[in-house]
């Protein structure tokens, strides 16, 4: 028997597993896929429909402490938003962001750097949108080559893995310096790259690029997979494993045994095996509609995890006493369109795990 069974391995599920493990709980995590975290930007944006509270601050501080411990620090403060650039050149406001991201200045000069092998990051397109967003900015562009051949279209994640290697970084830096000198480009205050500043060695990439280029560098996340999201997912998953979490990967919940308003067990299925998993507390972090925890039917939202009746907002009509809902599993009444992520996911995970001590 497990003390806690978590369903889902997005941001909410992984944080819940880690924080329950820190309390000494025996934790299992059941997931059908990799979770929607890998399809995100890695930024922490949303509060949901409820206003921020002191609990929000506690949860954000707890998250930042965890990420510092995992050597993947997050910057920012729950009480204020900053503007960061996306892979399309548009700005978005965010609350927490990784160290590989720098807020965009209101004025000055920036240089957008693209790679010839990466089709979904076009410096000229970024420049046009960014100039409309920040009219006081002078935006220059250039494109360099990773000098790598591939039989398929390369992604920004491919570029990030290539830049983990010192020899590839040296080639890229040499080309940037040569083009800047040839075109007599002024020294920018910020370099904007696609989301590609390394995976395992991101800190080294960040330091080398900023030192060699003489100014801060930032990633501009666009279409997934984005390196910041991959770094976050891998760091959290490894942390959960180190805490002793037992992962049931590629596993679907196909039923539950509910008795006297308590979930007694879950019936789970892999590709070739069906079994039961028993826990004292169940944390549902299945991601709502986007994560597959809810499906939309002609009668409204339907729960796919416990198979229990829900109301029009996707909330359980009668929630079992030993079930905790986090993230988008809390339904659309608390979250915009049932979409969660970011600060609202952090807070709901923190609140749920705190209740385990009561």
Structural notes for this entry:
By secondary structure, the protein is an alpha/beta fold. It has 2 domains: 2-52 and 231-355, FAD/NAD(P)-binding domain (3-Layer(bba) Sandwich), CATH 3.50.50; 102-220, Response regulator (Rossmann fold, 3-Layer(aba) Sandwich), CATH 3.40.50. The protein contains 9 helices and 18 strands. Helix 1 links the parallel strand 1 (2-7) and strand 2 (27-30). Helix 2 (54-69) packs across helix 9 (342-355). The longest helix is centred in the middle third of the chain and has 17 residues, at 166-182. Mean pLDDT is 89; it is low at 336-340.
Radius of gyration: 22 Å
- CATH top level of the largest domain is Alpha Beta
Principal-axes shape call: elongated
- How big a fraction of the residues is strand? 15-25%
Strand line-up across the major sheet: 11-2-1-15-18
Please provide the count of β strands.
18
N- to C-terminal separation?
20 Å
CATH topology of the largest domain, by name, is FAD/NAD(P)-binding domain
Mean pLDDT across the residues is 89
CATH-level-2 architecture of the largest domain = 3-Layer(bba) Sandwich
Number of helices: 9
Overall number of structural domains? 2
Largest sheet: 5 strands, parallel
Order of helices and strands: EHEHEEEEEHEHHEHEHEEEEEHEEEH
Going by CATH, what is the homologous superfamily of the largest domain?
FAD/NAD(P)-binding domain
Determine the structural class based on helices, strands and strand pairing. Answer: alpha/beta
Unreliable spans: 336-340
- Share of residues in helices: 25-40%
